[in-house]
Amino acid sequence: MDQPYRKDLSHLTWDEVYARQAQRAGLMAAWIDALQLKPGDRVLDIGAGPGYVSFALAERVGPDGLVYALDRSADALGYLEQLQRERGVRQIERIVGDAATLAPGSVTADAALVTMVLHHTDDPAGVLRSVARCLPAGAPVVIGEFHPDGPCEKGPPRDHRISPAQIEAWCKEAGLTVRDTRRQTPEHYMVVAQRTARPAS
Question: What is the pLDDT of residue 1?
Fold first, then answer.
């Protein structure tokens, strides 16, 4: 009998979650390129978990940059902290918190990555609103998800997947202008958005 889908990942160890993140390494180059990151930039990694992607972002922004690794799980970020100590990576700042209720001004970033996380959250639209509030006008945001039309051999079941059209609608509501939506694999797609210019006061 199939086990019910558990979106909180509580049935996995952090070693297993890290290994899952590593399996998506082939998707990351396109995400990071779309973020247009430069040495010294600050980037917000939503749902960082044990941090596989955070390390890739840290490499791109360099020692003068900063990665804000945000996750609801203190245990996941504790795992990341241990890896940071082992690898001598200091430019990752771990933040325990709910991305949907991130206080405006608590983080100021040049870009944001929201990949393979919205289907795990209870308020995905709220996550995108919070992200937008942390970015200046014109800042890039990359959202990665599992496509509902995919084969569903990996990732969440079809009824837990979010369509590109829904992501685009939430982006618009959050103040993010969608620049591109593309399929990366049969299972995965990415949305590239930009913080909409705020009206002049």
Answer: 33
pLDDT in tens, 59-110: 999 999 999 999 999 999 999 999 999 999 999 999 999 999 998 878 999 9
| Residue keyed to tokens 């952090």 | 14
**Cα dihedral across residues 135, 17, 77, 65: positive or negative:** negative
In a domain, 8, yes or no: no
Please indicate, yes or no, if residue 189 is contained in any of the structural domains.
yes
Q: How far apart are the first and last CA of the chain?
A: 59
State the residue range of the domain holding 189. 14-195
Asked whether residue 200 is domain-assigned, the answer is no
- Give the span between the Cα atoms of 96 and 115, in whole angstroms: 17
Q: In CATH, what number is assigned to the domain containing residue 40?
A: 3.40.50.150
Q: When comparing pLDDT for 146 and 200, which is higher? A: 146
- Please report where in the chains the tokens 């939430």 appear, as a residue: 170
